[in-house]
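Appendix B. One record, verbatim.
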Amino acid sequence: MMQLLQRSSDPLPALRGWHPGEQAVQAIIHLPERVAITAIVDRLPEQHRIFHTSRLHFLPVTTLDQQGRPWASILCSDDGMPGFISSPTDALLTIKARLWPGDPIIQNCSQLHDGKPLFSGIGLEVSTRRRNKFAGHISNVSLRDLDVDLTVIVTQALGLCPKYINIRSIMSFHGASPRLIYERFSLGDGERLPDDVIAFIHAADTAFLSTSYVAAQEDENIYPSRVGVNHRGGRPGFVRVRASDGKTLVLPNYAGNRMMNSLGDIHITPVAGIVFPSFSTGSILYLTGKAETLYGASARAVMPNMNIISSIYVTGFSFVENAIPLRETGPAERSPYSPPVCYLAEEKPPSVSFADITLSLIKTRVHDDTLITLTFESSRPVDIHPSQNCVLELTEFLRKRSHELLDWEEDESTVNDDCVRTWTVSTPPTPDAPCILSITMRAIKGGLITPILYQLARSVDPQLTGELIDVADLKVCARLRGVGGDLPVPEPLAACDGGRRLLWIAGGIGLTPFLSLTRHVTNLAARGFGVWDVTLVLSTREPEVMLSLIQEAFVNMSSRKVDDLQSPPGLAFSIHVHSPKFQLSESFPPFVSLIPHEGRLDDSGTLFGSVDAKFRETHICGPLPFVSNAMKSLQAAGVDPERVKRERFTY
């Protein structure tokens, strides 16, 4: 067995395609495929192994009970510290956890000795929003009192979308003393959830959803059965309980990675479980039941303004107080992607609702046949740091204003779109212009909103002059849902402290966060703050456009012409451009070195070795294939992957 698990170093695709339920849901929603099936690999990448074994304080998992109902549990050590998971090989995980009374995994363990019981888990580090999922089956289980040892054979691994994870700092808590309040693993049709349980759900901002896909006999070889566990997050109260029966949970479906794993499972096997942990009190609520997903008008009839919802009619639950040996050390930082709470049609919403900021489109600029820059003015000042992104809701524009300005027709593919998109802010507000921000975006082939925005910008610049056009009279507005971003903003370091040595790696439109960072660093250097050595590696098919954007980042910082820019004594800036073609006409300040490379960035590590990548703070931004290739090249140059900050453009 162990020899069979010694595999080659590079993970391979784990599946032949999306299973019938996932395909059905993708068809219902009319979604183009955004993530390739090859993103799911057949073993744990090395970074996942390091992450699971050294970073996790807890592990949400899914197991099945004797009725085939999925239950989500949260496993951790007795003291809540990382290290309770080990990975002997890239296909094995061993978990040594301390359970508490009321956890459904205790009763489920009794049947885990039979066959190959399905199992899944999601590693999530709440302080950084890092998350990786795995699935497979249990090869060995040992339960002694409340100590459980599990050996899991991993057959699927996947990195996940972080959009709705609320950031919180947690630490070990030695005062945990589990107290079982309710244990009703079988709940009758006429029974309701207790009021305190419903209140607990309505206060929660984090949950983990467990699902099961039971393959039809004719599909088993191609689309094997599996269980899954996925994160669900939002503002407190984002999951609602129907007052009419007191036992049906309603979960809004927020746009994520668009793989539709959980909804696809429910489509074929209509059961689901969910667990709600509280990191402020240590209490935990487990529920399972019959599941259903509603779309379009049917969904809106239950939860207005939501086009997709999932419901769980609870058939069993358990509630334990002070169980989790972890506590948060301060208030959680709400995910900027989370929309205001959507209430049920049968509820009376609060009289005061969350008021988002309105952005008015005031200028557009067309760069080429896919790339545009939009400049907005906010209804009040917005605090946006360099490299951050903004989450915009464009319902009013898509459903109404765009039809008044442009000749296009909606079809069935647009009905269930939530009209929410995330873009990096290429020019953030400044003290002189606290309400002005710009976004550079690409019109996505097969997309909905970006092609319409591009068409709008092109309609006012039909000759493609590239000029900045005033469009305030068009009265195009968006609502600002929030602001976020994972790339850190570097602070200045003096020469005596070694200065800052930065390596920025951008794939295509992944350049946008580095535009605002370039402004930030250049401004600090021009004012004499810190010593900076910046290397930007850019891979692009359109070098002229991308380099003009970078050139503007330097010019705009000083409001002077390029020829007038002096070299700040503490700044060295090198740009390595990988592109299949060059016609470099842009002029740069004297402190900038431009080095062209023909072709794509390879994975040999030669370039990164030549720029001393091992001794730089490295940040990558771009599409997943580019990020993966850049990571291989960095590792070949001796860079520790754990020190690399990555932001993928996958949604």
